[in-house]
């Protein structure tokens, strides 16, 4: 569908996960929905929460898959197929433990980096050729490889204010992607959020 953009935030459904590091993708699309005054509705067909809006003559779908993180591709694949979505019109927002806390990085494509949500989407789309916006959550101080407890924990009080800045700047980057394309969005916004260094 030519004039449709799909913005997917990854996370886990349920109140106990809402403020965890793993759910910053959800929080980004929630931030955009609030900014654009779009309301969330459950869409059983896609096992997702969706918010619909229009911006500059384009239809925009915000999506929070309700499958749990590791099966996110079921929702994204079904939506891409249903809407016949050209993949350059898709962006996926995701937490990234390999990116320092307070940094954001949009890319036109790339590897999953071991992120199970992205792995699931790649599997269901059959390609890595879709944009992703990585939101840096950093790693625990001891830098261990097994990070499940870390990503499923909430941000600390000191981190919370920075997270708000990150989400606001990442929302600006999404708007730049919509208005000016991915190259402009990458060059203007990728990097550390001011005040988070």
Automatic annotation (TrEMBL):
Designated name of the protein? Peptidyl-tRNA hydrolase
| Quaternary context | Monomer.
Compartments, record wording: Cytoplasm
* Annotated site (Stabilizes the basic form of H active site to accept a proton): 95
Organism annotation: Pedosphaera parvula (strain Ellin514)
Site feature (Discriminates between blocked and unblocked aminoacyl-tRNA) residues: 12
Supply the gene name.
Answer: pth
Gene Ontology terms, cellular component aspect? cytoplasm
Which CDD domains does this UniProt record tie to the protein? PTH
The protein's annotated catalytic reaction(s) are: an N-acyl-L-alpha-aminoacyl-tRNA + H2O = an N-acyl-L-amino acid + a tRNA + H(+)
| Residues annotated as the enzyme's active site | 22
């Amino acid at each position: 569908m030519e004039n449709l953009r799909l913005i997917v935030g990854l996370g886990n459904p349920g109140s106990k996960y809402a403020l965890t590091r793993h759910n910053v993708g959800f929080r980004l699309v929630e931030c955009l929905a609030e900014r654009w005054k779009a309301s969330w509705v459950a869409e059983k067909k896609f096992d997702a929460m969706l918010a619909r809006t229009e911006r500059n003559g384009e239809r925009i779908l915000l999506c929070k898959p309700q499958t749990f993180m590791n099966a996110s591709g079921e929702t994204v694949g079904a939506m891409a197929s249903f809407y016949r979505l050209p993949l350059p019109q898709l962006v996926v927002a995701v937490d990234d433990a390999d990116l320092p806390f307070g940094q954001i990085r949009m890319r036109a494509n790339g590897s999953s980096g071991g992120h199970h949500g992205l792995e699931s989407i790649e599997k269901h789309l059959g390609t890595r050729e879709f944009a992703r916006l990585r939101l840096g959550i950093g790693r625990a101080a001891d830098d261990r490889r097994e990070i499940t407890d870390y990503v499923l924990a909430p941000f600390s009080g000191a981190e919370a204010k920075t997270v708000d800045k990150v989400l606001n700047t990442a929302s600006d980057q999404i708007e730049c992607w919509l208005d000016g394309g991915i190259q402009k969005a990458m060059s203007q916004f990728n990097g550390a959020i001011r005040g988070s260094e």
